[in-house]
Amino acid sequence: MEAWISGMNSLLALFLIAALGYLIGAIKVKGIELGTAGVLLVALVFGHFGCEMPSLIRNVGLALFVTSVGFIAGPKFFRNFKQNAKSYILLGFIIILTGALSCALLIAVSGVRPELMVGLMTGALTSTPGLAAAQGAAGDLSAQAAIGYAIAYPFGVVGVVLFVQLMPKLLKADMKKEVENLEAAAGVNVRAYEGKTFKLDAAGFFSFSVVIVLGYLLGSIEIPLGGGENPPVFALGTTGGPLLVGLLFGHLGHVGPIDLTLKKSALETFRELGLMLFLIGAGTEGGAGFVETLRQEGAMLFVYGAIMTLLPMIVGYFVAAKMLKLALLNNLGSITGGMTSTPALGTLIAVAGTDDVASAYAATYPIALVSVVLASQFLTVLFR
């Protein structure tokens, strides 16, 4: 099997993984299903048996997904953020702080190298920018962080996907009522421009392409976080940049007479296609050496990673529900953003039956992104 999979044409492998992944993802056990995350599991298996995908697959997928989310969430985002700004900021910080504190405690009691444990934390929080920060701080031991990330990432994805499905069921929530409350609170975006508009192309690819270009340029801006010869830097990266620019374009709807909007059906298609491509790219990459790494480093590393996925979600949920009084869907949307979990947002949208949950994700995500980058650097340097 290994020879057959490793020698498979990339295009054939791409769509075979997708087909098998959606087939597995559609299997329901007591009403719970993996959905698109099933693609990740199949991709991990293919990666383990030697299947490789060009990095372009993952990058294009991520660009399609976050840009679509930005466009979809944009019309209601700023109103939602204005109403709950303090809650989103606090929640994003608390989720990452919980992950960082659990990481520090595990370093202290387990004896695992800090570079490896911080890598586990970034994988548990599904944060590639966090991994990059940890590798930069780890120096010659950066490979240890990458190993930890690869071990914890699969459960980091699947864990949040299952969490956003389980919580409404455990609470026996009336989803129709929750959606009505969410849509009423979000309101409708009213644009002031009353003149005639025109599209440069019927499908809206112009505005979608411009968002990705501007988003990548914004994401590449590096901000030094300290002094010295080689100070650590922060950047929004290929996720945060297109997401923020997409939110802005989605909110504006036009620039002068130029119509920037896309049909919702097209955005939903881009969003799902992007998520699929991203998971295939990430899964095949993470699957390579996954089993061997676990065999060498020990299965307890997987357990440590699971702890750093579960604790932040649980703490974040109860803080949002009990202290911040966020409604269920805003709560879960914030959890997906706080955990920087792209796949879980797609699952939550399917569970809720509305795209409005993307506003909470988009509001919490940047705070979590900054926090996890700083936490990764701080913990790596502190415990070295």
Count of β-strands: 4
**Unreliable runs:** none
Biggest sheet layout: 2 strands, antiparallel
3D shape: globular
Radius of gyration: 20 Å
Mean pLDDT: 84
N-to-C order of helices and strands: HHHHHHHHHEEHEEHHHHHH
Question: How many DSSP helices?
Answer: 16
N- to C-terminal separation? 42 Å
> What's the arrangement of strands in the largest beta sheet?
1-2
Beta-strand share of residues = under 5%
How is this fold's topology laid out?
Layout: H1 2-6, H2 10-25, H3 37-48, H4 55-110, H5 114-124, H6 128-138, H7 142-170, H8 175-186, H9 205-219, E1 223-224, E2 233-234, H10 237-252, E3 254-255, E4 258-259, H11 264-287, H12 290-297, H13 300-323, H14 328-338, H15 342-352, H16 358-383
Antiparallel strand pairs: 1-2, 3-4
Helix pairs in contact: 2-3, 3-7, 3-11, 4-5, 4-10, 4-11, 4-13, 4-14, 4-16, 5-6, 5-7, 5-13, 5-16, 6-7, 6-16, 7-13, 7-15, 9-10, 10-16, 13-14, 14-15, 14-16
Keyword list:
two-stranded antiparallel ribbon; 4 strands
Structural write-up:
The protein is mainly alpha-helical and 384 residues long. Helices cover 75% and strands 2% of the residues. The protein is built from 16 helices and 4 strands. The chain has helices at 2-6, 10-25, 37-48, 55-110, 114-124, 128-138, 142-170, 175-186, 205-219, 237-252, 264-287, 290-297, 300-323, 328-338, 342-352, 358-383, and strands at residues 223-224, 233-234, 254-255, 258-259. A two-stranded antiparallel ribbon has the order 1-2. It has a two-stranded antiparallel ribbon with strand order 3-4. A hairpin with an 8-residue loop joins strand 1 (223-224) and strand 2 (233-234). The longest helix has 56 residues, at 55-110. The N and C termini lie far apart (42 Å). The mean pLDDT is 84.
